Amino acid sequence: MRKKVIAGNWKMNYNFHQSIAFIEKLKEEVLKKERNCDIIICPNFIALSEAKKIIKDTTIKLGAQNIYYEDSGAFTGETSADMIKSVGCEFVILGHSERRTIFKESDELINKKIKQALKHGLHPIFCIGETLEEREKGITNNIVERQLELGLSNVTPEELLKIIIAYEPVWAIGTGKNATPEQAQEVHSFIRNYLNVEYGLVVADKIIIQYGGSVKPENAKDLLSQPDIDGALVGGACLKVDSFIGIIESC
Length: 251
Ligand code: PGA
Known about the structure:
With 251 residues, this protein is α/β, with parallel strands linked by helices. It has one domain (4-249): Alpha-Beta Barrel (TIM Barrel). Helices cover 45% and strands 16% of the residues. It is built from 12 helices and 8 strands. Helix 2 links the parallel strand 2 (37-42) and strand 3 (61-64). Residues 9, 168, 173-174, 212-215, 233-237 line the site of 2-phosphoglycolic acid (PGA). 2-phosphoglycolic acid binds at residues 9, 168, 173-174, 212-215, 233-237.
């Protein structure tokens, strides 16, 4: 039985002080009961170090929203895997559709980042998903398969177990229009089957596949009760303590 994993992708929201205030409040709420899911928060880089200090005695885990694939050097504005590791990150979101679209990240670049994260003992949260146009053309599975194939190129089965896959249909991100539980389950099951063929049953059975795209407390339970949906990557709804806790409670 796979344990559910709920991750909050804060994106470019909250300054340092707002982030700290938010994490203090979230910690207080999380600690009120025993939680039967894993919780990951991914604030902005500037808050990571202080965030770790606040959550260090809790089960809340820390992730970053990006890294560069080189170890160090003349890469102005970039952040390395070792840097985020040194402030206590265990996870890093890679391949997010906003990075693919706005920052033109290719599958090849994402693959390099995934390999680099793994090299440094980080767990990538590897995002994949189709656009509305691709869904309407009926090529969702082809798109997802290609993203998996290229993004996971040269990743071993042992390494794959360190990765969380996040299926995030682009048309559902930040739109308020989530995939129905059935639509999401269909793609999750396709992803698991693909991983079964490529990496074997043991890996396919263990790997966490999150759904992301307009997850809120109102739809989380139905989505999370699908057999192949093992958690959620939450954007908008993770920015309010009440709604993030609401999603955590639906596990
Ligand atoms: P959303 O974002 O929950 O606001 O749709 C999800 C994501 O981008 O990871």
